[in-house]
Amino acid sequence: MSNEGMTVVVIIAVIIGILAGLAVYFIPTFIAFGKHKSNRGAVFALNFFLGWALIGWVIALVWALKQDVVDYQQPVYVPQQPMYQQPPQVQPPLQYHTAPNDDNTN
Predict the structure, then answer these.
(1) Torsion of CA 43, 45, 46, 49, to 10 degrees
(2) Domain extents for the chain?
(3) What is the pTM of this model?
(4) Buried b (16+ CB within 10 A) or exposed e, 57-69
(5) Interval 9-31: pLDDT, tens
(6) Which has fewest Cβ within 10 Å: 31, 45, 51, 59?
(7) Nearest to 33 by CA among 71, 70, 65
(8) Tens of pLDDT, residues 70-97
C-alpha cells in the first residue's frame, strides 16, 4: 500500500474513532431523549459540560436511567359556574274546558 493510501486509511480510522467516542460520550443524553425524560435538557447539559470527568458521566447516566417522579398533588380545577344547574321552571299545562254539548240536552 502506498503512503497516500495509508494516510486515507488513518484519516478514516480517526474519524470513525471520534464518532464512536462521541456516541459513547453522549450515551446518557441518548437514553434521556429516548425515554422522553422531563429533565432531558439538564441531562444533556451535565453530560456536555461534566461528562469528560468520569463522575459527571456516571451521574448523567444514573439521572437518565432514573424513573421520573409523578406528582399526584396537582392543583384541582374549580369551575366558575356550578356543575349542576336547575332546570327551568315549567308552567303546568293549561286545562281546557269543553263547551257544553248541545246534543245531550233534555
Answers:
(1) 150
(2) 1-66
(3) 0.61
(4) bebbbebbeeeee
(5) 999 999 999 999 999 999 999 99
(6) 45
(7) 65
(8) 767 777 776 676 666 777 787 777 776 6
